[in-house]
Amino acid sequence: MVSAVAGSMLVLSGCVTTGSSLLSGNSSGSSADPRLTQGNDAQFFSRSGYQACAAGAAAGLLGCALTNPGNKTQCMIVAGIGACGVAMGANYYLDQRRSEYANTSERLEAMSADIQEDTRKVIARTETAREVMREDEARLQRIQREIETQQLDQAAAERDLAAIDGNIGILRRELVNMRNKAEEYQEVADAERVEASPEEIARIEQDIDLMNQQVLALQQEVDDLYNMRSAITLG
């Protein structure tokens, strides 16, 4: 069992480079703002579940090799599996938590902490996105004025619009992954409903609602920017 799990983690870690290269090769992000493609919050919601799991597993494996050489195998298993979380889907997450906590209340406490942490990441990402979107709105307003006054620099406007399109593309993909995470947490809550008390489920669903509210707020702002961008057509 140990060798099988450790082997799986090694396979996952080997996929990180491939997954990252696929993402970086996405043309819609090639001219995007570096604040959306670099930094601590740039990758968290941009990857698929498998890519997120592989990246987290690779980091966990490296950490074990450096910090826990005396019990490296067990550390690798815990770090590698724990890194995936709900990114790999509700069933995976629930099985993982049930292997760690036999008590439903303890599982729900751990899940609540996970949801709150993901919500903090959504908030941090939203703050970064708002900085970029405010600047994009200003660029769109400037381009619109230049069109109206017939003072448009066509080449410069095309570069600006390409960058804005890249930013919107990144944020829309991330919003899909954010919504997926919230939906998967809800699936786990539904699966735990039979054994949990109504009060425990209510607290978890409140956590999920708060996450959904943050995601919806970002969705609205991205939609507003997209509508503003769609109103501009270069001749």
**Share of β-strand residues:** under 5%
Write down the secondary-structure element order.
HHHHHHHH
| Spans of at least 5 consecutive residues with low confidence | 1-29
Q: Helical content, roughly?
A: over 70%
Question: Separation of termini?
Answer: 63 Å
Radius of gyration: 21 Å
**Number of individual domains:** 1
Total helix count? 8
Instruction: Count all strands and give the number.
Output: 0
Structural class: mainly alpha
The main β sheet shows up as:
none
Mean pLDDT: 81
Form type: elongated
How would you describe this protein?
This protein is an all-alpha fold. It has one domain (2-230). Helix content is 80%, strand content 0%. The protein has helices at 2-24, 34-37, 49-67, 72-84, 90-100, 104-148, 154-192, 198-230. Helix 1 (2-24) crosses helix 3, helix 6 (104-148) runs antiparallel to helix 7 (154-192) and helix 6 runs parallel beside helix 8. The longest helix has 45 residues, at 104-148. Mean pLDDT is 81; it is low at 1-29. Keywords: Coiled coil. Residues 126-228 form a coiled coil.
